[in-house]
Amino acid sequence: MRIHPLSFVLGLGAASLVPLFSRVLRPLAIEAAAAGMGLFAEGRRVVAMQMENLEDIAAEARARRAEILAAAQNGHPDLDVDSPTEGPSDESAEAPRGRRRTATASRRRTS
């Protein structure tokens, strides 16, 4: 088998360029990995903040719903169970409404 001088020189050139490429490409690969890890951490932080906001909204909605239900069960005249707004409605400010009666209000209490 005969050795071609051109292929021998190309082989030596490739052997000398591989360490050069690894010295240049390794820092680039490390920087790219560090940037990717930073983006991933930032994405996780943003998702965690949005989940916390969503949990806060859900907790406030649960508390508001419990407040509305408690007011309806106690016969509170200022809160309308069907209205999503807080406090007295515009209708109650104009004319006083009668007290809301529930099924339990008609029963007599015996002591």
Spatial shape: rod-shaped
Rounded to the nearest angstrom, the distance between the terminal CA atoms is: 116 Å
Q: What composes the largest sheet?
A: none
Structural class: mainly alpha
Helix content: 55-70%
The value of Rg in angstroms is 37 Å
Poorly predicted runs: none
Discrete helix count: 2
Order of helices and strands: HH
Q: On the 0-100 scale, what is the average pLDDT?
A: 79
Strand count: 0
- Please give the oligomerization state of what you see: single chain
Beta-strand share of residues: under 5%
Describe the structure.
With 111 residues, this protein is mostly helical. It contains 2 helices and no strands. The model has no long low-confidence stretch (mean pLDDT 79).
Q: Secondary-structure blueprint of this entry?
A:
Layout: H1 5-73, H2 90-94
Supply database-style keywords:
single chain; 111 residues; mainly alpha; 2 helices; 0% strand
Compact summary:
It is rod-shaped and about 105 Å long. The N and C termini lie far apart (116 Å).
